[in-house]
């Protein structure tokens, strides 16, 4: 914490916009103040694990200033679209959306010595029908203790763009991850601001849970020229969303949902499946090894912070039943078996991330694992229960933010499902007024949102969970939980 006079209670009150701690608020801890501040039902207090070991200090660095401006005052429209993808302690993959007929020199510079870093590979993908290319550079022999600057220069040597870069200390404790989904590029009011606000929380990594690109809006993808439409919309999203114009890059790992895949609520039986799988992973790259292992489709496992993150593919193997909405195939046998095989008994907490909700059966006519494939979900839970490790579920899609407590009977212990949707997308104000969710322990509707989660690993995993309004950078709810 900054300074010896820091008052945690007053900081929480100020962050939540509460003027005083007098009256009914006077007896509440900072954690319960956060829990009570739920915009849909401000009188409701959720249950909090009161074990002080589970509480990582909620301090000033959750809401930070802009920091050093590396970009010489130029606006986003004048800069290069850049994403830092798969990253370990010593490696990172960075890709840039660039005009394909213009030459650029790109280098990763160690900030103190000025030394250019080792490039493992430098490749580009382009198509005759588009004026931009995606250039990917794989850097190695890096260190999480050092700071780097990515420099983009013209062929003549003029500086075009520069960004701060760091690798990930995968042994860090506590660690901080951000969850987000549903990033509609047509949300002009928040598509830049939302990512700047998320960056202020200084997460170690951003995990995207689908609908990162809305390929089928405004024009649906059909069998006519699907490559042109998909690549065009992917590149258009890359050139408009604020995520790709941050002064200091943050590693991004992603899975998808239907809109990235090409069609609303679609199954995996589309003629462009192999093309879009390949291009999605090109736009959101992961490493081979060094904490990463790939599965079927676009899914993969990433191990860091004493946790294993399983980024699942909810579209490639999806099959709608012709006879029953509730008997569809969700992940399919190969992907489910990969998850079981990859969840080896290493003691790490497992995070299973998916585009669609797992326990969304309270909305019976909307897509979710529980609503459309209940028997498959029950089989999944039965097999996960046999593992000695514990699991947490994370999802997007729903256009609201929500935390569910999953009953002990399913896994042998109480777990959570965290839903963060969407960071800039139309929101449902209160879907629970007509379809109450009995598992819900925290929620907010009507606010574009993302989640910030502090993770501390002792004998158990301790979490501080904050849902944040993307536009106003205000906490919608927050609490601590032991898993």
Structural commentary:
This protein is of the alpha+beta class and 483 residues long. The protein has 2 domains: 89-165, Immunoglobulins (Immunoglobulin-like), CATH 2.60.40.10; 175-482, 4-Layer Sandwich (Purple Acid Phosphatase, chain A, domain 2). It is built from 10 helices and 21 strands. It has helices spanning 8-15, 30-36, 193-200, 226-238, 258-261, 273-283, 333-342, 369-372, 374-385, 408-411; strands at 81-87, 92-99, 104-110, 118-125, 132-140, 148-154, 159-165, 175-180, 205-209, 252-255, 292-294, 300-304, 307-311, 349-354, 391-395, 401-406, 415-420, 440-444, 449-457, 461-469, 475-482. An 8-stranded mixed sheet has the order 11-12-13-14-15-17-16-18. The longest helix has 13 residues, at 226-238. The two termini are 25 Å apart.
């Amino acid at each position: 914490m900054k300074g010896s006079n820091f008052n945690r209670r007053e900081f929480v009150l100020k962050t939540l916009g509460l003027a005083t701690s007098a009256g009914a608020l006077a007896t509440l801890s900072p954690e319960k103040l956060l829990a009570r501040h739920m915009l849909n039902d401000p009188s409701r207090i959720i249950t909090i694990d009161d074990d002080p070991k589970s509480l990582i200090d909620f301090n000033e660095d959750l809401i930070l200033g802009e920091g050093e401006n590396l970009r010489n005052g130029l606006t986003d429209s004048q800069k290069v679209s850049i994403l830092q993808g798969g990253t370990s302690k010593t490696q990172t993959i960075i890709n840039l959306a660039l005009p394909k007929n213009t030459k650029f020199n790109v280098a990763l510079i160690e900030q103190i010595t000025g030394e250019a870093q080792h490039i493992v590979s430098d490749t580009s993908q382009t198509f005759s029908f588009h004026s931009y290319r995606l250039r990917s550079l794989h850097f190695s022999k890096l260190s999480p203790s050092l700071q780097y600057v990515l420099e983009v220069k013209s062929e003549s040597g003029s500086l075009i763009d520069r960004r701060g870069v760091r690798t990930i200390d995968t042994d860090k404790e506590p660690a901080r991850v951000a969850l987000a989904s549903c990033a509609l590029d047509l949300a002009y009011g928040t598509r830049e601001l939302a990512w700047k606000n998320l960056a202020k929380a200084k997460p170690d990594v951003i995990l995207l849970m689908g609908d990162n690109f809305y390929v089928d809006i405004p024009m649906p993808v059909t069998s006519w020229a699907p490559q042109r439409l998909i690549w065009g919309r992917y590149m258009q999203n890359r050139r408009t969303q604020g995520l790709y114009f941050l002064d200091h890059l943050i590693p991004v790992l992603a899975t998808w949902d239907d809109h990235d895949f090409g069609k609303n609520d679609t199954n995996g039986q589309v003629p462009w499946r192999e093309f879009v799988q390949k291009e999605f992973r090109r736009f959101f790259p992961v490493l081979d090894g060094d904490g990463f292992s790939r599965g079927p489709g676009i899914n993969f496992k990433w191990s860091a912070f004493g946790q294993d993150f399983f980024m699942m593919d909810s579209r490639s193997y999806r099959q709608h039943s012709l006879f029953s909405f509730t008997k569809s195939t969700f992940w399919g046998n190969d992907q489910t078996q990969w998850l079981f095989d990859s969840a080896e008994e290493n003691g790490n907490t497992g995070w299973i991330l998916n585009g669609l909700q797992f326990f969304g059966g309270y909305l019976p006519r909307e897509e979710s694992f529980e609503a459309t494939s209940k028997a498959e979900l029950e089989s999944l839970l039965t097999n996960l229960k046999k593992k000695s490790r514990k699991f947490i579920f994370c999802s997007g899609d729903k256009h609201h933010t929500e935390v569910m407590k999953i009953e002990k009977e399913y896994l042998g212990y109480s777990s959570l499902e965290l839903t963060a949707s969407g960071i800039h997308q139309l929101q449902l104000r209160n879907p629970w007024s007509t379809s109450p969710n009995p598992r819900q322990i925290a929620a907010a509707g009507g606010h574009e949102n993302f989640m910030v989660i502090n993770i501390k690993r002792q004998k158990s995993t301790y979490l501080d969970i904050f849902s944040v309004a993307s536009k106003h950078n205000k906490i919608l709810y927050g609490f601590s939980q032991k898993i």
